[in-house]
Structures
1.
Amino acid sequence: MGYFLKKQNLIPYLAHLNKKYQVFVPAKNHNGATCFEEFSGQELCLKERTLYSVKDLYLPNKEREFFFEKKHGSCKIHETIKHRPRIVFGVRSCDLHALNVLDKLFLEFYGYDPLYKNKRNTSLVIGLSCSEPCETGFCASMGTNKPDFFDLFFWEKKDGYFVEIGSPSWEKLYHKKFFEETEEKKGTPIEDCKLELNTADLEDILEKNFEHGIWNSESKRCLSCSSCTEICPTCHCFTVEDNFLLDDSGTERYREWASCQLQRFTKIHGAILRASRKSRLRQFVMHKLSYFKQQHNVHLCVGCGRCIQVCPVKISLVDIAEKIRGEGNA
Amino acid sequence: MHEYEAPLKPELAEIIKVKSETPSIKTFDVRFVDKKLQKQFAFLPGKFVMVSVFGYGEMPISISSSPFEKEFIQLTVNAVGNISNAMHRLKKGDLIGLRGPFGRGYLLQRFRRKNIVFFSGGCGLASIRSAVLAALAKKDMFGDIFLFHGCKSSKELLFGKEIANWERRNSLNACVSVDIPEKGWKGHTGFVTDLIEKKPLPVENTVVLMCGPPVMVKIAIQKFKDLGFKPEQIYASLERLMHCGVGKCGHCNIGREYVCVHGPVFSGSQIEKMHLEEG
């Protein structure tokens, strides 16, 4: 036995949640791209996974860390304000796994990041199943096609959603008006992805082929546009910068996304440590498929295929990894 | 698991003294405004702090004072970028932000009864100085102590008087080399890495602690290995761009390591596995 939510009840259910929580849903932004937008009764985009991932809600592309108030030659440090509790609806399996990967770094590795933890702990996540494999995805290869790390998961059925329970906090999301008991079973994860990546010992194979010729040939096409890192649900690198406030009341410190595809990412005085496109493209692929796995025992790539989708010159990390496996030293 | 908050919030510290060392390097004596923090602040040589110059940003700076100095912390800063230049404009009494110490330092207590070769280039002497002061304070613990230092010109020699003092008191064998000599320079000329072959060094029971520009580190490790040093006998501090100091921002990532939490001091055997020069 489980719960079922009828399709016509979805919008009223979200509206109900919106009374107490800030609700985010997959919808079109002002540019027409699909991403997670604040719920306002707008049309939902539930057909395919969003172009922008759920990362944007937890690691916004620009965020204030501190405010330093200047007063009588002294200085007071103000921390950033806490967040309203959130519900994120419509998170696909790949993005759920992406959040788990970010948790490893921002909650467990050398102390938790207070800004990330604040948002993560005050938000509940409702997942949503995929009915079709996406054009560039390879989640079945990465093992991220099976949903995990959610509070509720909605399996799409003919006229509604079978609701799977994932955490003790699910009761906060339950309402008897919308949920009815059902004998239906949960669905099955996507297995027939269009791309395939063999991940067996991949981290070692890539490490051993650090000087493989494919880095030269692929980087000749790479534009270093950093679209891949911007769109990736697990790319998390950031830069911290200070700003003077124009009213001279003090200064603020904010963090902003950074991209390893740009030269300034490794610029120290007198040298840029990854000056060539080759080394920067390699850093991206190696971090996704080798380095992070060596460190945290999970790949930084969740197989959503967004980087392949947005790359203007169609560089694919699946192709690179498969080619190295096929040609490189074992 | 690590269930604690990563220290991102800087604490206020006051500059109590500024000393010009060379045309581009100044040493700042700083003290936490909160007296309790100053008392509790303990660190190993080689560790670094994140220094905030409010309105300009934050940068990683190695601590150059002795770990036994409890009254203040010394930061030796080379003016090379936006933040370090802004720091150079600060005066006695100005406030900065400090957080740390971060990273792994030189584990001097592991080198009991061993000879130590300190090896530095340019501003790298800042973090090496902290280790030298710590070693000299417990001199009986160690064998012979050597210091090799190199800089561009005699004008840019950091802590020149201090090195001369150490030598005069026979505390250590120092050897300074300049790349381009100026009038009146009586010491060595050439790259500091050339001294490795010229100076007789004990290989047995010796460790090398190194800090300097990436090129120097690379060449020096190779030359020490040619002399017969094993990679485990060499420790080098690496320099990378850092924005957080707590293993999150990703700038200092080299392979599986983050320099800010797994370094900045790495052993030679770790460095051998790293891709240092990616071009």
2.
Amino acid sequence: MTLLLKNVTYTFPKESKPIISDLNLKVEKGEFVSLIGKSGTGKSTILKLITGLLKQAHGEITINGQPISLGDVGYMPQKDLLLPWRTVMDNIMIGAEIQKDLQLTKEDARNWLKRIGLIDYEHALPNQLSGGMRQRVAFLRAMLTGKEVLLLDEPFGALDSITKKEMQAWLLSIWQELDKTIVFITHDLEEASYLSDRIVLLKQNSVEEIEVPLPRPRHADMLHSSELVGLRRELEKRI
Amino acid sequence: MKNFFKTYSLFIVFMVVVLIAMEYLVQSDIIPAFIVPAPTDVVIHIIDNWRPLIFEHLGATMLEFAIGFILAVVGGVCLAVCMFFSKTIEKMLYPAVLISQMIPIIALSPIFVLWFGYTIWSKVAVTILMSFFPIVVGAYDGFKSTDKDYIELLRSMGASKRQIFTKLNIQMALASFFSGLKIAIVYSLVGATIGEWLGASEGLGYYSRRMSGDLNADGVFAAIVILTIVGIILFALVAMVEKRTLRWKETE
């Protein structure tokens, strides 16, 4: 499974200058790639192009050589967007309701809720959950769409630092176990360095790719390692 | 119940003061009884005439109201759905829906009598005309108010337009729809009453007009009191259904 963006250009309607110009990006199966860059460099737009929500003016986006279409990837936007009238379980099951061929039973969903510590909240409404819980449910919803590629748009951006650390560890454990391919957006350079195999630095007119020199599996102690601190400083300079 | 009194205690006190003041002013001959009746006289009128008032006149009004309201809800929701899915239908019919509210009902009602005669349908037509607008606008604006981010999320999962409508738009429209429905149910009752003023042989509108012709203020006010109580009950019923349907909002 390879996600490939080839010479992708996108211009917003009524804009003359493209926000993404001639972008090339290759993400291999099981890779964790973070997109970083200042606001307005098109990070979220890239994810929307990969989901098929936006259509590029030029270039092609493929998964295993096949042009992408809506429903091909799991997508978690910046806001958790849990449907407020649906219980936690019903929110998780919405992917299976939409894609009839998706083999997801309530029992599977229940097992996952158990694993992420939310089994007692199966029948709770989103407004009865904390920020971290909501993000976990939103992540589970994206993951249980069964797609190999997961696009996560600043999923932990609004969380406090303690919850954020917990969520990072949790995400890494699930990613390693399920061998998903993740494209992750963050403004947090430490987060990008800690989680990713590779970091794609988006600038106004260029793209830089940086390999993360940390071994797998990652653990919280590495946050203070000289490699990670050095990488973060390097990113600060380059961004 | 405690909440009810907390919310409405001031209103209840106000109404009691107004009724006592009315009673005093009329009983002391400060205001003639044919202008404003004493509340006790209105109650006595209702008790003395409860059988024809409830079974004959309220029954007739409720039948006109029920047919008109149900047709307005069904038609209004169908039109809102059609306008939501078709820009052409929206451009063609939305202005007509708006204009229907600009026409004075009193001016239009004789036309209904011309078309439908003095049958129940002339009253039903007025009822529909009165209640159609808030239902259409409530439902249509509700459908359109769906957050774009939610739509994108479902689209990213491969949802069809129909799936987005059933799983998202309908739920998102409910709050606005119920606001329209609460207005419409009260308007429907008013519509049925106005329809009866213009030509009927039974109904609370007809009764109040007949009593007015006899300078019987007790009778006029008796019909008004019954209509008001029924209107409050109908409004409360819709509010109750709304609360049950939108229970999730209470957790917000």
